[in-house]
Amino acid sequence: MPARSDVRALVEDYLARHPAERVPLRPLLAVLDAAAEPTSRATLPGHVTCSAVVVDRNRRILHVRRRATGLVLPPGGHAEPGDRTLLATVLREVAEETGIRPGALCLTARYLGTPIDIDVQEAAPDPLRGESAHRHYDVRFVLCLADDEPQPLALDDAGVPHAQWRAFADVTSPSLRAKLLAAEDHGIDGVDRGDAGDGLDGLPRPVNASALIHDNSGRYLLHLRDNYPHIWEPGAFALLGGGREPDDKSLEETLLRELAEEVPELRLSDLTPFAVERATGVDGLCLPVQVFAGRWNGDPDSLTLNEGVLLRWFAPDMLHRLRLHPSTIALVHRHAAQTDPPERPIDA
């Protein structure tokens, strides 16, 4: 089940952006302070659920009609024991109810993994489950489609017999509708987020930044990542970089922050955008990555490495011998083909 501390962090982040909602959400905070599992449907008189606000290119939100209640709402539901995070719950529910797999969805650069809305819903009694009337504290995450056209829906007819895309003004949840319309009219929060976009046009934008670091000998600097579960590409060679954070004003700022955290003494020259690549995140989402090319000439062993195992230079013709994602190999070869030949022979 999602960790209580992670759920609280999401809620506190949300309340920092919507302080006026702290009073109406006090019962949710009480649930998070109580001993019972906050995301378990057995926790009464209220527990945490979550929903997906899936936006298409026409600024419409996916809704499903639930057979049991007749309600028309964004897809979502209850956490299950195998769900590590609320976002994992959302992705599983979307796949189960509509057939849209995580790889067909992206986080938005504006919201990343933070909620757009938290709604309080009154749930009717369910005698078959032995549940009395209770509340759902529904945490909503914004996702957009990775491709121009949505894949055909494969509905779970037993629970979700119908789905439709609705304009912002026709979204059924009043709290979500208000936030969508306010964002459309006035921007999300009045803060300039540089190249982040507004997050509600349905266009996938990069949410990660990586550094394609090369030297005057035509070599490329690769990072051997820790072999820990729940990190991106564990135990493999990869590019340095990481994920955007809400306070980053640009993807270049994201990259420089990540490099300062990972390799604080590394200073790159000629840092320029090179390509946008698609990867698969640890949660299965499609992950657009802005790759920046930068030059550095130095000894990796002289650097302090705060994350991962080691840094090493490799010539492009050595990459096939490494545990390295094929797309990264292709990226390096593409950059090498567009770059002036090495100034001096590559060391054997």
The secondary structure category is alpha+beta
CATH architecture classification name of the largest domain: Alpha-Beta Complex
Fraction of residues in helix: 10-25%
CATH class of the largest domain equals: Alpha Beta
The pLDDT mean sits at 91
Classify the beta-strand content into a percent band. 25-35%
Low-confidence stretches: 187-196
Largest sheet: 5 strands, mixed
H-E string: HHEEEEHEEEEHEEEEHEEEH
CATH topology of the largest domain: Nucleoside Triphosphate Pyrophosphohydrolase
Number of DSSP E strands? 15
Shape annotation: elongated
In brief:
It is elongated, with a radius of gyration of 23 Å.
Structure keywords:
Nucleoside Triphosphate Pyrophosphohydrolase, 6 helices, alpha+beta, 348 residues, 2 domains
Word description of this protein:
The protein is α+β, with helices and mostly antiparallel strands and 348 residues long. It has 2 domains: 193 residues, Nucleoside Triphosphate Pyrophosphohydrolase (Alpha-Beta Complex), CATH 3.90.79.10; 130 residues, Nucleoside Triphosphate Pyrophosphohydrolase (Alpha-Beta Complex), CATH 3.90.79. The chain has 6 helices and 15 strands. Strands 1, 4, 5, 6 and 7 form a 5-stranded mixed sheet that branches. The chain has a 4-stranded mixed sheet with strand order 12-9-14-13, sandwiched between helices. The protein has a 3-stranded antiparallel sheet with strand order 3-2-8, with no helix packed on it. Strand 13 and strand 14 form a beta hairpin. The longest helix has 14 residues. It comes from Streptomyces liangshanensis. Its cofactor is Mg(2+). GO terms for molecular function: hydrolase activity. This is NUDIX domain-containing protein.
